[in-house]
Task: inverse folding
């Protein structure tokens, strides 16, 4: 009894069948596209590092901004409480989307789960990534014109262009099947297969299906039944089985006339990942911020440069920061690092990387970015252990340790503090969660300020490092890999640990400054003029840039 078609008792997760003759075939002139302001929805709570997640991010990046959303453990918290998809909140949410991501965690014959059923049942067109091919879906009775399969397209860009450019008339054709077919609920499917088993058991032994045994059940199950969990891009033509696509073949042919995108690796990149630079300099650091922007443009390393000399209105009017903005030190004890990073993250595609630097930093050898970008293929976050191994307990007040529920001496929190001066963060759902946690922590003004600690400080305590103290402990909460001790591992923090975040802690090469050798330095320079030899600012030529692009896109 299994979902594979060669099982003695075929037990699919979902089936679609023709309506009974006694049921009236419904006809409708409804515009199913009406009110659907977004394109793609996905609920997913496990397998966050599987290829399907990376494919979703690539598709999301190729679609118009803010048109594809993922909720659950692998994305943002669901706006709806509970898990009853039939409640009013979920129904209202579903009605805002045109397509549902029916992405399976594996591609095996007949392995089509409730994700596909949810799309059909809720009136959202499923975009299927599963089965050995689209034929597996049609074998379950799904009408050819009721869904999209990623294998129908030549590239992720072609799929995104077709979805985004679809007219209402074309979209409505995906619902014609409802006049002649209906979705069989999973419970009914289960009842049917159990009835088949029961019926077989009531037969005479001679009339029952012949028994079979297998020496290797895994081999029977997997051999020839599964394919790589990635799209099998169709470089030749649109399958004739898909009537909706066939009717729009001429329009689709234009959008699919792109270079065939079929990566050998399991890392999906819609185009190429981009590198963003973020800094903020107001008051007497405004000139330094402008200098850093000029240096960034000169190196040609960054795709986008976000340099602020005043905070965006969205941050200034946010009630969380009202008390902070009244404080003079650090323009509000440096809360704005987390807030600005989140603001810039909203403009970035998944797979892009953000480099934050204090305005007093200086850029150096552009070719030295290669190693850092290569690290971002296997790590979401790169932080730096401060030169001199400054202890957390000396530079973090007791109330911050208490907020984390940890002692000064607990590993890895007893290791040297990490710099808030500069860090790198690749955009993933996990790094988005990191920024949400960081904002949550710095929003507590008492923690980020110089207010005396209620909980006694360590006897070695000197000064609170505000945003940096919170940043450092938060990075350590997710079991980072320390370059200096790569074999050590720690438990995730119960509240702030992010399971799939992969932080890397490097030794700080930024201080003392050496811009001739390294990519950047903590020069602590508030002026408009470089503090060191201007010849140490080395640019990146075309071969250097191409190498960086390949490293950042994890294709080198």
Result:
């Amino acid at each position: 009894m299994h979902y594979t078609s060669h099982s003695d008792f075929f037990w699919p997760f979902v089936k679609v069948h023709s309506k009974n003759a006694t049921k009236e075939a419904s006809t409708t002139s409804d515009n199913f596209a009406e009110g659907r302001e977004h394109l793609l929805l996905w609920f997913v709570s496990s397998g966050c590092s599987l290829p399907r997640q990376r494919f979703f991010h690539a598709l999301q990046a190729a679609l118009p901004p803010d048109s594809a959303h993922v909720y659950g453990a692998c994305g943002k918290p669901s706006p709806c409480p509970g898990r009853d998809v039939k409640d009013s909140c979920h129904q209202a949410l579903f009605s805002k989307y045109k397509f549902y991501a029916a992405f399976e965690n594996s591609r095996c014959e007949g392995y089509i789960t409730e994700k596909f059923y949810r799309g059909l049942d809720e009136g959202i067109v499923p975009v299927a990534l599963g089965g050995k091919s689209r034929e597996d879906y049609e074998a379950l009775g799904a009408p050819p014109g009721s869904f999209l399969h990623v294998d129908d397209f030549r590239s992720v860009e072609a799929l995104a262009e077709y979805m985004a450019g679809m007219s209402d008339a074309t979209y409505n054709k995906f619902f014609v099947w409802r006049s002649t077919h209906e979705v069989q609920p999973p419970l009914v499917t289960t009842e049917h297969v159990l009835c088949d088993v029961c019926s077989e058991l009531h037969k005479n032994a001679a009339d029952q299906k012949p028994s079979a045994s297998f020496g290797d059940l895994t081999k029977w199950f997997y051999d020839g039944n599964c394919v790589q969990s990635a799209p099998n891009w169709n470089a030749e033509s649109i399958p004739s089985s898909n009537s909706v696509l066939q009717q729009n073949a001429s329009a689709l042919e234009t959008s699919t006339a792109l270079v065939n995108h079929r990566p050998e690796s399991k890392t999906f990149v819609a185009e190429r990942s981009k590198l963003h630079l973020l800094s903020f300099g107001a008051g007497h650091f405004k000139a330094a911020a402008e200098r850093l922007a000029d240096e960034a443009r000169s190196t040609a390393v960054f795709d986008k440069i976000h340099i602020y000399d005043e905070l965006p209105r969205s941050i200034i009017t946010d009630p969380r920061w009202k008390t902070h903005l009244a404080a003079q030190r650090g323009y509000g004890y440096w809360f704005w690092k987390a807030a600005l990073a989140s603001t810039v993250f909203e403009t970035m595609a998944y797979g892009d990387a953000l480099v934050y630097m204090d305005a007093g930093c200086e850029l150096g050898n552009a070719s030295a970015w290669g190693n850092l970008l290569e690290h971002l293929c296997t790590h979401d976050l790169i932080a730096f252990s401060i030169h001199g191994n400054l202890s957390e307990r000396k530079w973090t007040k007791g109330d911050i340790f208490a907020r984390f529920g940890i002692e000064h001496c607990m590993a890895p929190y007893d290791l040297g503090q990490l710099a808030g001066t500069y860090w790198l963060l690749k955009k993933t759902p996990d790094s988005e969660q990191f920024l949400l946690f960081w904002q949550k922590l710095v929003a507590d003004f008492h923690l980020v300020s110089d207010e005396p600690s209620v909980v006694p400080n360590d006897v070695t305590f000197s000064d609170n490092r505000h945003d940096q103290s919170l940043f450092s402990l938060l990075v350590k909460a997710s079991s980072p890999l320390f370059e200096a001790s790569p074999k050590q591992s720690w438990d995730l923090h119960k509240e702030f640990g992010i399971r799939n975040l992969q932080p890397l802690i490097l030794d700080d090469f930024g201080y003392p400054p050496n811009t001739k050798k390294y990519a950047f330095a903590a020069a602590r320079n508030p002026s408009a003029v470089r503090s060191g030899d201007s010849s140490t600012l080395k640019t990146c030529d075309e071969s250097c840039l191409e190498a960086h692009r390949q490293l950042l896109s994890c294709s080198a």
Q: What stands out?
A: Residues 21-27, 236-271 have pLDDT under 50 and may be disordered. The CA atoms of residues 481 and 487 lie 8 Å apart.
